[in-house]
UniProtKB/TrEMBL annotation:
Localization, UniProt: Nucleus
Protein family per UniProt: Belongs to the Mediator complex subunit 18 family.
Superkingdom per UniProt: Eukaryota
Function text: Component of the Mediator complex, a coactivator involved in the regulated transcription of nearly all RNA polymerase II-dependent genes. Mediator functions as a bridge to convey information from gene-specific regulatory proteins to the basal RNA polymerase II transcription machinery. Mediator is recruited to promoters by direct interactions with regulatory proteins and serves as a scaffold for the assembly of a functional preinitiation complex with RNA polymerase II and the general transcription factors.
Source organism of this protein record: Gavia stellata (Red-throated diver)
Keywords in alphabetical order: Activator, Nucleus, Transcription, Transcription regulation
MF-aspect GO terms: transcription coregulator activity
Record bears the keyword Transmembrane helix: no
Name of the protein in its database record: Mediator of RNA polymerase II transcription subunit 18
Amino acid sequence: GSVLDQSLESLLHRLRGLCDNMEPETFLDHEMVFLLQGQQASPFVLRARRSMDKSGMPWHLRYLGQPEIGDKNRHALVRNCVDIATSDNLTDFLVEMGFRMDHEFVAKGHVFRKGIMKIVVYKIFRILMPGNTESIEPLSLSYLVELNVVAPAGQDVVSDDMRNFAEQLKPLVHLEKIDPKRLM
């Protein structure tokens, strides 16, 4: 979902009340999306992300699998995810492996937790000069809101918990399951 800039404080206040009793984390991350075009029609996509506000943190390499074709009544999108902490030469390694950088952006926001759920509220910033994360501008006048859970396969009850939590955020934000094929 998304929330307009002027409604952000109301949403953050609601999340502080609904989530675990701890101060939310803030983050400022630089993400680069790399593609490897192979024999298949769609390229292989990897995401490299690093913290800009916490020095010494490792790069993270993330692979997000294709959404599972399953029950249409399931309230959440389900897909495999692999997230690995790496060394500082990650981007050079990916280029040497044949990947090319497709795009990059800066994400700035807040992370809340409710049990095993993670709620992320963030704004995406366009990088005006490639590679220069100091020169950025907001992409829109709103913040993205994501609710995600890392769970073992077959834990469909988790999607019901996610739907129940999302209902508590209405009318500030309407969280929906996104069909990635619709975005292409």
